[in-house]
Design a protein that fits this description.
The chain is an alpha+beta fold and 227 residues long. The protein is built from 3 helices and 10 strands; from the N terminus they run βαβαββββαββββ. The strands form 2 sheets. A 6-stranded antiparallel beta sheet has the order 1-8-5-10-3-2, with helices on one face. Strands 4-9-6-7 form a 4-stranded antiparallel beta sheet, with no helix packed on it. The structure holds fe (ii) ion (FE2).
Length: 227
């Protein structure tokens, strides 16, 4: 029997290479940010710069070279979707670091104010936690909740696979970048490596250079009128 998969969620993985001196410099910079806003906490939630006043990381010149490499991967992703980037202005609207100590993680969330999101792994020891994607609309859910864990425990479902699962985990190596639609719910698995894990995340907005004749995509902010 032939399987025809329709309407996929497409997440892409790419590799970005930086010199170790650059990596060390960026890690030092991010550690400084974290140390100025470290909270005394009991929670197991990782430090995320976007909510600590460090949401414009790429305004920092030290991140220029990395940002341009990430830009190249983002354009490749848009081209994969057959989107004509010539007609678009593309902006990093936010960019920030996440710093995950041992046993910390990030709960499921979306970046609903954005179009495309990414995570680049600047520091990723083995076993420091993958990224988990979740779908709220299972295309193959032929009966409500037929694929939940309890159905596996009761042997109604033999085993989870790509056709019956509502989540998928990717535990990528250091220097990988993962790019995905911002509306996709995602989380991170706990860091169990005993060492810090640092990712650089960002939200990307796309808008038309010229919106003439288009109805749905965002018109260029240069033509907006402030109230
Ligand atoms: Fe996120």
């Amino acid at each position: 029997m032939k399987v025809l998969n329709l309407f996929p969620l497409t997440v892409v993985q790419d590799e970005i290479f930086i010199e170790e001196t650059e990596r060390n410099e960026l890690v030092t910079e991010i550690s400084k940010m974290k140390n100025t806003h470290e909270e005394k906490k009991n929670s197991s939630y990782a430090w995320t710069g976007d909510t600590k006043g460090f949401e414009f990381l790429f305004s920092n010149k030290k991140f220029n070279s990395l940002a341009s490499k990430i830009s190249a991967s983002l354009v490749k992703y848009l081209k994969l979707l057959e989107i004509n980037t010539e007609l678009l202005d593309i902006f990093y609207q936010r960019s920030w670091a996440t710093y995950t100590n041992n046993e910390e993680s990030i709960n499921f969330h979306t970046h609903s104010q954005s179009n495309i999101s990414f995570a680049y792994y600047l520091l990723k020891p083995n076993n420091s936690g993958g990224i988990i994607f979740k779908s709220n609309e299972l295309q193959n859910e032929i009966a409500k909740n037929i694929f939940t864990n309890s159905k596996i425990e009761k042997s109604l479902i033999n085993k989870p696979n790509a056709y019956n699962s509502d989540r998928s985990i990717f535990d990528l190596k250091q220097d990988s970048i993962i790019i995905f639609p911002s509306k996709t719910p995602h989380a991170t698995a706990p860091n169990l490596s005993g060492s810090p894990r640092i990712s650089i995340s960002g939200d990307v907005s796309i808008m038309l250079k010229d919106s003439k004749g288009f109805e749905h995509l965002m018109p260029n902010f240069k033509n907006w009128t402030k109230i």
